[in-house]
Amino acid sequence: MIYKSIVHIAFLGPKGSYSHIAAMQYANCRFDQVIECSCQRFNDIFTLVECRHAEYGVVPIENSNSGLINEVCDLLLHTRLLLVDEITIPINHCILVNNKTDINQIQIIYSHPQPVQQCSKFLKYFSAWKIVFCESSAAAMETVAKLNQSNLAALGSMQGGAFYGLHSLLAYNLSNYQKNTTRFIILKNKNIEVINNSIAIKTTIIISINQKSEKLCEILKILQFYSIKTTYLKPRFLSYNRSNNIIIIEIMAHINDIYTQQVLIELRKISSSLKILGCYQCTSTTNKN
C-alpha cells in the first residue's frame, strides 16, 4: 500500500548499512519516493523524527544471536515516538575487500561491534587480525573502499559492500549461527490507526520493576489469567540504573480490547512504570530476500 508520495526516513549509518537495507526494503512497497536521512547515532534518529524532520525512523531492536540492542531499549523509555510497524531481515556477514586483496594479506578488519560479536567464532581463527570498530558496518565498508589498501577488509553484508565496490573474499554468512536475523522497528510521531479485526495486531509495552522484586512471576500469571497470547517477553537491566529491570512485552491483541485494558491495569499495579510503545498491524514480519 502506498501511504504518501514522499517521505523522509532516518536510519543508522551510510548507504549499505543493515539499517539502510531494512529502511529501503520497508519503504519500497509503501511510498512513491523516499528521502534518505543517514544518522551516525541511534539518538539522532529519534531526534529527527521527534522534531518532524523525518516522518519515519528505522532502528534495530533485537538480533536473533546477540539479543536486544541496549541503547535502543534505553531510548524507547524516554521517547514520545510510537512503534507503527516492524521488519525482520536476514543478516549475512562476509569479509569484504578491494579487488586485489588476498586473505593472507589482511591485517586489519573494520566493523561495527555487533557483526564482530555475531561472527566471533570465525574471527577466532584469525586472532592476528586487528579489529577497528566503526559507528556502523557501512562506515567500515566505506573506510576500506576509500583507503584501498590490500591489508584492509570490512565485516559486513555483500549487498552493502556493492555500494562501495567491495566484493566478498570468503564464504557467504560467517555468523556463529546459520540463522541470523535482525528485527527492526518503525518509529513515527503519530500512531497509524489500526482497525480491530481478525488481522494480526501487536501491542508492545515496556515496564520497569525493581531488580530485587519477584514481579516477573506475577506478570506471567496476569498474562496467563487473561489468556493473552504473548509473542515476546524479555527482561533486561537498564544500562544506567542497575537497580531496575525493564521488561519488553509483545502481545497479539489490540490496545482497545477489553482484556488488554484489564491487563494494563493489573500490570500498572505491580510495576514502577508502564509505557505503551505502540499498537500496529503486523504487515512485514520477515523479509527473506
Structure in words:
The structure is a single chain. The protein is of the alpha/beta class and 289 residues long. The protein has three domains: 96 residues, D-Maltodextrin-Binding Protein, domain 2 (3-Layer(aba) Sandwich), CATH 3.40.190.10; 72 residues, Periplasmic binding protein-like II (D-Maltodextrin-Binding Protein, domain 2, 3-Layer(aba) Sandwich); 81 residues, 2-Layer Sandwich (Alpha-Beta Plaits). 28% of the residues lie in helices and 36% in strands. It has nine helices and 15 strands. The strands form three sheets. Strands 1, 2, 3, 4, 5 and 11 form a six-stranded mixed sheet that branches. Strands 8-7-9-6-10 form a five-stranded mixed sheet. Strands 13-14-12-15 form a four-stranded antiparallel sheet, with helices on both faces. β13 and β14 form a beta hairpin. α8 runs antiparallel to α9. The mean pLDDT is 87.
